[in-house]
Design brief:
Distance between the termini: 16 Å
Number of strands: 11
Largest sheet: 6 strands, mixed
Number of helices: 11
Strand order of the largest sheet: 7-8-9-3-10-11
Helix content: 25-40%
Structural class: alpha/beta
CATH architecture of one domain: 3-Layer(aba) Sandwich
Order of helices and strands: EEEHEEEHEHHHHHEHEHEEHH
Radius of gyration: 19 Å
Length: about 280
């Protein structure tokens, strides 16, 4: 049984000019201990798809699906209270822009301990001990001291490690990482990716990696879904995708890698691939 199974997910937002379909019939599965990468340019519906799974879209968004099941439970039939008990505990998400995702008014220690209080019911001493353990596990130096720091007192890389510690605090079965290395320098990016892959292997989590970076895909993924304009264009195991892409859009993404630059000119992807259609079977 798949850990997460989605069939024909559609997400629409109301705009001044009418409904806008941000996600258009996306289907996917992810299993325990598997790393699934969802790749595509900005605006392709990657993050919106996963925010719909987490139940974190605004109430104005219209979310429909033929199936949306996590660990055998129908997410579409859960009450808001049941969904809140699951989100942050059984499935968790690392958001883009870690500094913006953390509350600037509270210490990072308070924010991780709050997760442990709400979902695990730990007392104050146990929460602090677990928070120190988690900060140590994600490589934050002097973890006991760092608990008393506010987000602005920490670097971007340290804030990202705090976000990862919060996400894994309750040992989730599924972890969604949304552009986890955005705005970090190359050295820190490598450290964060290595950390995520180590934690995924140690805890046996299913991991969904949302990215527009094909290098991250090559380094981390077992399978890859390529999205474009809200639709799933192609799905393949990572080696097949790089060696024999079936979709014109996938080929365009791969041709735009920096190593294909000519002189000082970087390759680009066409703004609108109007005639592009999903590869046969991609929606399954």
């Amino acid at each position: 049984m798949a850990l997460l199974e989605i069939e024909n997910l559609v997400v629409e937002f109301q705009t001044a000019s009418g409904p806008f379909r941000a996600v258009d019939g996306v289907s996917l599965k992810v299993h325990e201990r598997e790393v699934l990468a969802i790749v595509g340019e900005s605006g392709s519906g990657k993050s919106v798809s996963m925010l719909a799974v987490m139940g974190l879209l605004p109430w104005t968004a219209k979310v429909t699906a033929d199936k949306m099941a996590f660990n055998g439970r129908d997410l579409l039939k859960l009450s808001p209270a049941e969904r809140r008990k699951m989100v942050g505990k059984d499935m968790a998400m690392i958001f883009q822009e870690p500094v913006a995702s953390l509350n600037p008014c509270f210490t990072v220690g308070f924010q991780i301990e709050e997760v442990l209080r709400v979902h695990l019911g730990l007392d104050k001493a146990a929460r602090r001990a677990r928070a120190i353990e988690l900060f140590s596990a994600v490589g934050i130096p002097d973890p006991a001291e760092r608990l008393g720091h506010y987000p602005h007192q920490m670097s971007g890389g340290q804030c990202q490690r705090v976000m990862i510690a919060i996400a894994i605090a309750c040992n989730p079965k599924l972890l969604i990482a949304d552009e986890p290395t955005t705005a970090l320098d190359v050295t820190i990016q490598k450290q964060i990716l290595d950390l995520l892959m180590r934690l995924q292997a140690e805890h046996g989590m299913g991991l969904i990696m949302i990215t527009h970076n094909m290098g991250v895909v090559a380094e981390t993924a077992d399978r890859v879904i390529v999205q474009y304009k809200g639709r799933k264009m192609e799905e393949a195991d990572v080696l097949s995708l790089f060696e024999s892409p079936k979709s014109n859009y996938t080929r365009a993404l791969l041709s735009a890698l920096p190593e294909n630059a000519v002189g000082d000119r970087l390759p680009t992807v066409a703004g609108f691939m109007v005639d592009e259609a999903p590869v046969a079977g991609a929606a399954q």
